[in-house]
Each structure stands twice: as structure tokens, then as C-alpha cells.
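Dear colleague,

As promised, here are the two records you asked about, laid out in our usual form so they can be pasted straight into your sheet.

NAME FIELD: protein one
SEQUENCE, THEN STRUCTURE:
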Amino acid sequence: MPQAEACDTPVDTGVDATVAVDLDGARHYLRWPRDRTLIDVLLDAGIDAPHSCREGHCGSCVATVVSGKVDMETCDILEPADLADGLILGCQARPVSDEVQIEY
């Protein structure tokens, strides 16, 4: 079951995770350093992922964790039910599990 952790869970910054991101009909496979946000990793790879404020307040980067587990530094706009459904903010999400699948 996908999980989005409540804010501020400590993240192990050891070995990079891997992420499969489904966006605009394409699947992208990337290494995801545990100290980097999903949006940063996608933009650095040249993938035009939806985002705006990059501070966790606008919701333009909302995505769904299909499998795996992530943590978010700030998640003011997501309700507990949203987190239970696997919704995340890409600008705040960092990997907890070794493999994560995300869908935009």
C-alpha cells in the first residue's frame, strides 16, 4: 500500500532510491537521492513536472504514490485523508523506501 508520511519524519540520507514517474503518458526511471525533492530530481533530469511555489503551499505539484513510501517536509494543504490516499506534494517529497512509483 502506498504511503505518504506525516510531515517531518527523519529520512535516511544513505543510498539513493529509484523512482518510476508516470507523467504525460511516459514513464521515467530515475535515481532519487534521499536528500532531494521529487520536483528537483525531475527538473534536473529535464522533465517538465507540474510545480509552482516549491514551498508546499499551492498544490500544483500534487501527485500520487502508487507504490513505496515518501516523506514530506511541509504538507500544510493535504488533509490526513489525502495522505492516506497516497497524495503527495512533489516539491516536498523525499524517498523513504528504496523503490517508489509516482503518478501525475
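NAME FIELD: protein two
SEQUENCE, THEN STRUCTURE:
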Amino acid sequence: MNSFYLGNLQEFETKAYDYLSKSDAYKVLLNKDKDNGGQQWQIELKQMVKSMNLLLESLKNHKAVNIDLFNRLLVDTSKVKLPYLYFLPDVSKENEISLVPYITSKHSTTWRISKYLNELLRPFVDKNLSRTTFRDEPDSMQKLNDYVYVERHLRATTLFCSIKIVNYYTLDIHKNMIDTVGYFLEDNLIINKLEQVTIQTIKNLLHIFLYNNVFYYKDKIYTLMKGSPNTMPLSDTLPNIFLFTWQKKILKEIKSKNEFFGRYKDQKLIGTNVPFLNAFVKNQNGELSTRVYHHPILPRYTLPYVVGHSKLAHGDWFRSALIRAVCYCSSIENFNLERIYLELTYLANGYSIFFVENNVQHFFGYFHADTMRYLKNQTMYDKFRHDWFGYMRMQYELSDKLQTFNDNDCLIHLNYLYEFGPKCQFNRQFHCLLSESFNQHANLSKDKVKVQLTTKHQHWLNSLLAREKSTCSIQ
């Protein structure tokens, strides 16, 4: 959200220390600036890296990992930086402010192992969990609509219930998490391997990853006793496995009664009104009614916080918000109210009528439904909504292909400064030159690699108001 929190620094830091002292997920290892003249943490971190590399070498010697994978996972002390913890305020509750912890993870000792394990596990996990897991907000609404209108299981007595898991990234101790992943793989793999990697090797790599996550906050260095840093992609994959195993009993009961169940990360929806994933879901005597849910505590008419070129990012978000609105709103009246709310939000934040009109017209024009903006025909709206659900299914397929390119290290991200000039023309010329130059290249041809162009902008609020923490490298 494009807003700032202003509060008392001492009260904020007191809440942060209370959070760390009361949580059973963190443990103090040592004082960063006091022990042994401030050098003890360097010695400890070097020793930790050494033990990690010895474990990896042992796996290599026992033929559990090949030499290429060993070199890929080997920790280079000269490139390691000690992660740090910071907090962001959660103001979603009335008269109460809680803190949400974030741990920087890139360049940490476990970053390489985390990246590899996620690339190995995530596709297999996603495939097995797809029936009970939502990809995003539109996907949750599409599956709920299928439950109601295709399978026709909604009854007048159906109640909806949403569950929030507050310790999603710190669910259990490391041993239990490793064992759960092992049981999941044993139950769902035909053989004892996942892409030539044995289950035991995966568990060994998970052991190295989970037991070696450290970070600092103020003058203390901590280790994680449960879970892993929430900024790592693997930290979403592991709870997905853990919760899938845990929710099996619920799923068995729900399936026998033709009830609806779905989960998106730390939120669950069990199938007379309830907010879920920014949607308000209501059962009106056997008829499903849904719309966009606006939290009553959070400020209205605000744009999301973006990094880089704000106009470009806000244009993309406008389109996404309109797609979410049409997927969420079951009635044309609620959709029009949400569309008008979005238009007013952009106007209130200084965007021109031309910007708003251009984005709205592009949205309706995509399916040649320009007149939908001025009509109140529910039947036409239902068809329009169905078309957008189909569009999202196509986007999921493209997203999966792009993720495959990324997993295979065939996705190249390029950034360029965007101050003036026609962005679209630049992008077309760039891709044209790239195609002409590398059309016959063995590794860089169009079908072998994808290039994503992203704009950067020099003038953004982080550079003016924020101050990045100094990094701690091993010397």
C-alpha cells in the first residue's frame, strides 16, 4: 500500500524486542559487537560455513550429489553476507499494531541450497497440491464458482469459514519438518527418487538448509529454531508440504460430504458470509454472492507501494485490479461500484483522466466488450466474467512456462533507466535485434531463452526516505 507508518521509535523497538523474546522460533547465538572485540561472530560464521561445506563434501564422496551440483551448492565465504531482521507494522486491527518480521536472505549461507531445493521440490509439490491450493485471488474465485455452478454442491445450509495461520513460516521444529517432507515424498513418488535425487539426499540437504539460517538484529545474532526466512521461495514450499500432510484428515471429511476446501499460503477457506483473500463470500439461500472486500481499518483510495517506474507499475496494477474485480464480483452492480472506486483512487492520487480512461478502455476492449461499461445486463456480464476466467487460465499456463525457463536458468532479466521516450518502441527494437543476432545460436535463440525487460526509475521514495542497513560480510 502506498502509505507510511509514523510512530514512536522507542515503542516500535520495544514491540520488536518483545516479539523476539516471546517467540520460540528464535534463539540468541551471541552478541555481535561485544564478544571477542566484535570478531567472534566472524569466527562463528566461518565455522558454520566450513561445517556446511564438509557435509556437502560428504554427500559428494558418497555419490549422493555429483560434482556439478556440489560446486553449485558449495558456500563461498567471500560472497556471504550476514542477513538482518527488520519489522513492518500491521495496522489491520483496530487500536492495535502488531509487527511482521522479515529476514533478508539473498547472499546468505543457505541461499544456494534454498534455491536448488525449491527448484527441485516446488514443481512436484504444486502438481500434487493443485486441487486444494489456490494460485492467487482469481484462481480461488474460479474454483469456488466451479464448485457452485459446475459441480452444483452449494446448499442453502452451506456455511463458509476462513482460517488464518499466524505461524505459517515457523510451523514446527526442523526435525519434524524434515521428517514430514520425507513422508510426503515417500507417499507420492513412484520410486525413491525425485529427478535422480534420492529422498534421503533431499532430507540431508534440508538439514543443512534449516539448521544454518542465522541473522542479526541490533547487536545480537540469532538462529532459527523453527521454519526458515520468509523471504526465501523454499519457505513457502515447505509449509505447503507440512500443511498438506496435516490437513489430510480434514480433506477426507470434506470430500465425503461434497464440501469445498482451498488454501492460499497461510489462509484457508472451508465451505454465512466470510472475508477471504480480499473477497467477501456470502451464501444467500443457496445462491453464491461474492464481491471485493475492503478492510474497514485500512485507509481507502490508496495505491500499492511500488519500486521503480511508478506510472508503469501502477498501470499494470490497475489492469490487475480490474481483472480481480470482475473475477470477484458476482453481480454487475458490485463490479461497477468497484470499477468506479478504482477510477476515483487513481484520480485522487494525481493520475490524469486520460490515464484512467486509457486503462479502462483497454480492459473492456480486450474482449470487444466496450459497451459493457455502460450496460447493466447480468447475462452479458456473466459471459464477460467467464471470458476473464478463461484468460486467467491461459496466463497460468504461460506463467508455468516462464517458471520453467527460470528454473533452468534460461530466463534473463535486464533493467534499463526509464526517464523519457517510448518504452514500447524500445522493447520492440530490443527484441527484434536480439532475435536477429542470436537466431541460430545454440543457447540464446528465441526458443531456448526468454528475456524480460524491466524499467528502473531514479526518483522513488525509498531513495529519499529509506536507509538500507549496512551489510556484514565475512572478512
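A couple of things worth noting about protein two: The chain has a mean pLDDT of 84. The CA atoms of residues 322 and 339 lie 7 Å apart.

Best,
R.
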